[in-house]
Amino acid sequence: MIRLYDDLIIQTVCRIMIPLIQLFAFYVIAHGHYSPGGGFQGGCILGASFILMVIAYDINWMKRRFSEKKNILLIALGVLIYALVGVLCILLGAEYLNYGILHKIIPTDSVKVRALGTLIIEIGVGITVMAVMVSIFLNLTTLGKHEKGEV
Amino acid sequence: MIDLDFIINLFIIIIVVIGLFFFFTATVGLLRFPDFYCKLQATGKGDTLGAVLVLLGVVVYILKEDFSFSTILVSIKIFFIIFFIFLANPTATHALTKAGLDSGVIPIKKEDLKK
Description:
By secondary structure, chain A is mostly helical. Chain A has helices spanning 8-30, 39-56, 59-65, 68-91, 110-141.
């Protein structure tokens, strides 16, 4: 179905660019210890790729790939990862989010396990930020109805 | 006298200055052109070519300073940026133009310029 605001050039270029944007977002999340970036920034880029999908195609096209239910679940999942790592540190006998203590259950030394704990936290933050960005965008542009195709 | 280092430096300077010239013309076009579509054309073309030329100069500069694995990696990343700009900038200009046309921005006519 071809609608009024469809555009072949924009849709084709977005088809090429959206995977590149998502790959770059994962790079920003995973490389956050050594270079500018981190969970929040990578999550924003990842959310922007889904927003680009909505702008270039329409909401229903995106929701077939990434439904509202999955979106809400991902919001909770990111916070759950964050909190579970923190509480795990308390259970092993250190402060909240003191990753150094995790070497009791992960068989590496204390310095490497600290970087690994930071990476897990960043992944959780990134998932939550991405899902919340998409959720805010959908709610604002459709006035909370989530049904109109053309924004 | 004239050696390879001098020639490469000259090449870098020329390519970056040409890129800056394109940025300058894009800015002048943005400030001085009469209507939306003319301004968009000036910035869309000038910014793309200017950014690509400046980044090419940066790549040559990095590789001239130190030709090793890490600098080759950095130059590949800059080539990704060039590819992205070359793809995204004209498309964004096209999207803006189409949005303007769809929402009823009227292009300027020759008669309007003579007033």
